[in-house]
Write a structure and sequence with these properties.
single chain; globular; 7 helices; alpha/beta; 26% strand; 11 strands
Length: 260
C-alpha cells in the first residue's frame, strides 16, 4: 500500500482496554496521521485477557459515541466482526489497527491478549492488521507519547509491503520517552512462563471467591526475541502467523502413523 493509497484507506481502530482507554486515543491519533477515514469500534468495558473470544451465548449491543465511534458490549473480536460484517459492510476497512495496549504483549502474552485478538480477527477477514502495545513500569505513568511519536511511521513501513495471507504484525513500544528509543528491531515471539496464580478472598458472607492474578515469568534469553528488544529500548516488530501447525512434528507424526 503506497502512502497515497493509505491516505485514502478506511482504517478501523479497536482495542481491548475499552472505549475510554487513553491508549485508544493514542491509536486514533496514530491512525489519523495515516488517513482521514478513521472509524473506532471498541469494547464498552475492559476486555484485557479476553483472547480471541466471540460472544455467542448472549447478544451484543452497540452504542454510538459520535459519527465514527462506537462502543460494543463485547470482546475485541466481536468489535472487528461487527464493524466489518455490519457497520462498515458497504465499504469495508482496508486496515485494522488494535491498541494501543496499556502494557506489553510479548512472548506467551499473545495467546491471552484481546489486543492481539483484534488484529487477529482483522487478519482472518483478509485485512492487513497491526496490534500496538506500550510498555510501562508501575506505578509510573504510561509514556503514550512514545507510541504516538513513532506509531504512524512504523505502520507505514509495515503496510508498504504485502503481508502474506494469515500474517499480521505485533508492535511493542519500549518504556522510554520517544527521543530515547534506540531504533526498531524485527523480532520473533519470545518465550516466558505465564506466571498466573490464584488469589483467594472471602466475601462478607463468608464465601470464598478468587482472582486470577498475573506476574510475568522468567524468559528465555533470545537476542532476536521481542522481550529482549523492548528491554533494550527498541521498538519490537513481530510478524505472527495464524497457522499453529508445528510442521516438524506433523511430519514425524505422519511417519509414526504410516508404520505398519
Amino acid at each position: 500500500m503506497t502512502p497515497t493509497e493509505l491516505a485514502k484507506a478506511r482504517i478501523l481502530v479497536t482495542n481491548d482496554d475499552g472505549i475510554h482507554a487513553p491508549g485508544l486515543d493514542a491509536l486514533e491519533e496514530i491512525a489519523s496521521e495515516l488517513s482521514s477515514d478513521v472509524w473506532i469500534v471498541a469494547p464498552e468495558h475492559n476486555q484485557s485477557g479476553a483472547g480471541h473470544s466471540l460472544s455467542i451465548t448472549h447478544p451484543i449491543r452497540a452504542r454510538q459515541v459520535n459519527e465514527t465511534k462506537f462502543a460494543v458490549e463485547g470482546t475485541p473480536t466481536d468489535c472487528v466482526l461487527f464493524a466489518v460484517k455490519h457497520l462498515l459492510k458497504d465499504r469495508k476497512p482496508a486496515v485494522v489497527l488494535s491498541g494501543v495496549n496499556r502494557g506489553t504483549n510479548l512472548a506467551d502474552d499473545v495467546t491471552y491478549s484481546g489486543t492481539i485478538a483484534g488484529a487477529m480477527e482483522g487478519c482472518l477477514l483478509g485485512i492487513p492488521s497491526i496490534a500496538f502495545s506500550q510498555a510501562f513500569t508501575h506505578p509510573h505513568p504510561v509514556k503514550w507519547g512514545t507510541a504516538t511519536h513513532h506509531g504512524a511511521d512504523v505502520a507505514r513501513r509495515i503496510l508498504a509491503m504485502d503481508l502474506p495471507r494469515n500474517v499480521f504484525v505485533n508492535v511493542n513500544f519500549p518504556d522510554v520517552v520517544a527521543a530515547s528509543v534506540n531504533g526498531t528491531r524485527v523480532t520473533r515471539q519470545g518465550v516466558r512462563g505465564f506466571g498466573g496464580y490464584i488469589v483467594e478472598r472471602t466475601d462478607p458472607r463468608g464465601g470464598a471467591y478468587y482472582w486470577i492474578a498475573y506476574a510475568p515469568g522468567e524468559h528465555e534469553v533470545d537476542d532476536q526475541g521481542d522481550i529482549s528488544a523492548v528491554r533494550e529500548g527498541y521498538i519490537s516488530v513481530t510478524p505472527l502467523h495464524l497457522d499453529l501447525t508445528h510442521e516438524a512434528t506433523r511430519r514425524k507424526l505422519a511417519a509414526q502413523f504410516e508404520k505398519a
